[in-house]
Amino acid sequence: MRFILVGPPGAGKGTQAVHLATHFGIPHISTGDIFRLNLKNGTPLGLQAKGFMDKGELVPDSVTNEMVADRLTHPDVQAGFLLDGYPRTTAQAEFLKSALTAMNSPLDAVLEMTIDNSEIVKRLSGRRTCRGCGKIYPAAQPSCDSCGGELYQRDDDKEEVIQRRLEVYADQTAPIVGFYRNEGLLRTISALGSVDEVAGRAISALSK
Ligand code: AMP
Q1: Distances (CA, A) of 191 to 112, 123, 128, 154, 167
Q2: Per-residue pLDDT tens over the stretch 45-65
Q3: Is any atom of ligand 1 closer than 6 Å to the C-beta of 9?
Q4: Does 134 sit in the ligand 1 pocket, CB within 6 Å?
């Protein structure tokens, strides 16, 4: 199974991706997680991405596409993959299409998660992320129950940056929904409800 998750920041893509990757036995490839790992390790890629991430802007397509193309050469993607947070522009979607065509591994589906902006702001400003493993929690959680790591608020989950991320989503990412609708790959579900409810909806949409 090869598919991508599309939806605004705060739709719960990262949380669902963990469930869905386990369910389908495929790697979860999150461009945001790869950038954050590079940032934490102080790599040149991390330093290049930092300025864009801090402002809620997209890292340039050339940098992001190269990083994804490299990830797609790892042997684990032979089992399939789930892309989370990529593509985020029509140019990235076009790049991915040619990369996958060259690999003879076209996408099976694109799952769109929909949610209102007011709910997004509530979710993002209240969420905390584990420094160790990246798992997401509500603000009241004291520490990570998976790895014991410290929880922190991502700089880009602060209210002023959230608004910019929403604008960027509407301007640059929402158009890819039409791109994939035209390709006949789009399945849309509501992102509202408990993690298990949304996962159930996602699995049944992907199994059609
Ligand atoms: P995320 O964790 O998916 O919300 O991503 C966090 C940040 O990483 C984004 O706000 C962007 O700055 C950057 N980023 C992640 N994925 C991409 C992408 N596909 N294209 C450009 N920038 C990205």
Answers
A1: 9, 12, 19, 21, 19
A2: 999 999 999 999 999 999 999
A3: yes
A4: no
pLDDT score of 35: 96
Q: Report whether 15 contacts 195 (CB < 8 A).
A: yes
Beta bridge partners of 32: none
Ligand 1 centroid, distance to 53 Cα (angstroms):
7
Please say whether the beta carbons of 100 and 183 come within 8 A: no
- Which are the contacts of 40, defined by CB distance < 8 A and separation ≥ 6? 46
Tell me: pLDDT of 159 over 90.
no
Q: Which of 13, 36, 128, 135 is catalytic?
A: 13
* Percent of the chain whose predicted confidence (pLDDT) is above 90: 89
Among the listed residues 2, 36, 123, 127, the single catalytic one is 127
